[in-house]
Amino acid sequence: MSERQKDVFLDSGRVTFRRGVPGDDLVLGDIDGSFVTDTIFEVRLSANGFTLNEKSVSSPIVKKFPLSEDIDVDDEEASARFVAVDADGNACGFIDLVFEVWNRRVVIADLGLSPQYRRRGLGRELVGLAADYGRELNARTLWLEVTNINAPAIRAYLRMGFKFCGLDTSLYRGTASEGEVAVFMSQDLPG
Hints:
The chain is of the alpha+beta class. About 15% of the residues lie in helices and about 45% in strands. It has an eight-stranded mixed beta sheet with strand order 1-2-5-6-7-8-10-9. It is globular, with a radius of gyration of 17 Å.
């Protein structure tokens, strides 16, 4: 789907997927990336590794992400953005990708879905576009980072075939996400 558009009918109606264009930053910034969860993936470190266990929390966690620096999809030849637009022409989701040439890995740098479009297949479609993009570039894997407290996203990525591949206990140190653990997940891209 390098240049063409794709229409998909989800239970929420027709959604059109297209490549990102320069003016998208203005409307995509309005997508609410926050989440609420009553479970987290607790990370327990051991002498030779770690375990992740989903556990309930005593009161729901509400997480709002600060505005992040956007990827300039025009600057880097090996970057892409795909945008989902609903039948009314409103942006309802996006995925930002970076292709790392040295290890042939497509990094999902950001994925955002409007709350009313979550759990309707939109994220799966966007990740599918990321996989197609990776195959066009002969990438070997999709890779992403997610906070351990975003259990809804982790469960969704697991359903899409991603596997845990590592973590970083210090990535968020000194940030608004202090105390959380960065969990890395990947999915092979067969040829």
